[in-house]
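Here is a typical sample entry:
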Amino acid sequence: MSKEKIIDLSLRFTQIAHEHTDYIDGDVLLSDRLNHASMPTSPRRMTFILVALCTQGECTFTVDTQPLKIHKNDLVVISDRHVVDNFQSSDDCDGLLMIVSVNFFYEVVSNVSDVSMLFRFSRNHPVVSLTDGEVELFRSYFFMLKDKMRATEHKFRRDIVRTLILAMYYDLSNVIARLNEADIKKMTRADEIFTNFIRLVELHYKHERRVGWYAEMLTITPKYLSETVKGVSGRTPNEWIDSYVTLEVRVLLKTSSKSIKEIADELHFPNQSFLGKFFREHVGMTPTAYRRQS
């Protein structure tokens, strides 16, 4: 890869202004015209989760300098932090595209026991070939999502979309199990550390945010934990911990009547001011403003 500056590829950059595209709250984008998407021809770092299904033609691109080629019935899964570049497609290339913001994705998978499996697999296998039955399954999910996203008057629209994406996630995990069962059973040491770290975070993030504490629980050094987690997932341990805390604050602000002080106490912030600063840094607005818009 050349040394040109790598620009973040945001959901806004990929927006496709035509009747084949649907959005929801800046968190989910769907398009049934992959060939109309604004795909990068210079290095762009992903800031979202991308899932695309090629329905005809072919295209090439690089992920973290690795050249990839997709054909009909290939599914592409690329998580945030990866660098995409050199996108080129045949004249007849087309497909389905779903983009999900990182925050919304973690809302969706907040109760999934092994969220690390998707990251481990997509890191090494961003492109997978589906059976005809699997293609039809994901097409049905896609068009059901489009229908629900267009039902803007539905009071539970966002919840339905979240539930459908979660069901899709589990079916994608089933595809991964079919394709890579041996690798899943025989995780590398790095994969095992990452998986155990995530499980610890899920149990203790409300009261423990020190990387050193998690390293001690895993009987490794903080430096080794940081290098391993970063290598497997593209995120640092602190970023993972913060993402769980941020999600919990968002959920409490949306679904509970607890005061911001009570939320700060529940999540072991020193005081309400510390929570406000943390939330602004990660969400871009105050807890009060977030609660009002929800």
Summary: Confidence is low (pLDDT under 50) at residues 1-7.
